[in-house]
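Quick illustration, no need to memorize.
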Amino acid sequence: MTGAGVAVIAVLVLLLFGTGFLLGRTARPVRTSDVGTPVEHATFETLHTASLAAPPLRAGLTEESARRSARRLRSLLGTDALCLTDRDRVLVWDGEGDHHGADVMRDVQGLLASGRDTAFHSDCGDLDCPLRWAVAVPLTVDHRVLGTLVAYAPRESAVLARAAGEVARWVCVQLELAELDRSRTQLIEAEIKALRAQISPHFIFNSLAAIASFVRTDPERARELLLEFADFTRYSFRRHGEFTTLADELHSIDQYLALVRARFGERLSVTLQVAPEVLPVSLPFLCLQPLVENAVKHGLEGAAGPRPYDSVRAGNEPIRITISALDAGAEAEVVIEDDGTGMEPERLRQILRGEGGISTGIGLVNVDERLRQVYGDDYGLVIETGVGAGMKITLRLPKYRAGVHGS
């Protein structure tokens, strides 16, 4: 089969492959022995080559991703040489005639400005050089030209021009997915920063003040609390990984509650019930701590803000918080419940809609949105509350979800 024939097949297959990829279709693995005719064999080879070129491009248009994908892309086109550029420089040259690389950026200047395909004859004084003609196609994401794909050949070829356009559009799909991944990561990082900002300066001040109160009366207790404080802040402000394990999240909560107990003493009663088999389950980082902090705030301090304990609960009866993480088949079920002041259900709905004010309910909204982003809308927070009835927050975590791994 000629190079032009393979290029035509590549165009058609890439169109089908790109559509199937975006729709999330998967097919059973194809064995080489399954393909009989030359067309079937060429189709299989094209799909296989495209599948190998895709992963590097999911990292974006960089020198490394260009280097790792260029040979596969040139194989798809069946051309003598291929070049990938960004807006400023050549990222990689693959194939013959690399001396043409010095002129590429000059040749694609008009394309970078207009975003339109262009073809040109190469000005080469080397009589033995086979590269006499080239077609350049923009690599565009979100109406922005990020760079170019340039394919070189011995002569003008309408087939190569069309094939280069289709391969470039397939590359653009991969780059768009890379942008989506990057945007998602930035969004999650911003949300975690918002949660970190919500770790109240008052909580830090009160924790240090509580620790200081034990320095003379119980130095060993002060030392233990200081270590708990150091570990809690180290975990909360860690910089690696967007996921953690249920074991690590519960350990951080235990440290948080140790600091709260140092301040409130017997006025806080916490019951913890955890099934060992759910401890390795992965979940979004800093996902449970805001919910426990919410229970403490609305239990000990009241929904309207800090106030004397006696005005919240008579007879020195402690506020009770129950935290459970239980096995529920393919899922882990986490429940955080307090018997504090609670709130009006309509007020809760306003908070979850983001109408509670700039500093109200950030933790609840943030956690609810992140759970839905990672697991889907079926996995948001389920909250039950009423005035004087406390609050019960339930969340379900799949024991396994592709791409969700605690670090």
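Residues 1-30, 303-315 have pLDDT under 50 and may be disordered.
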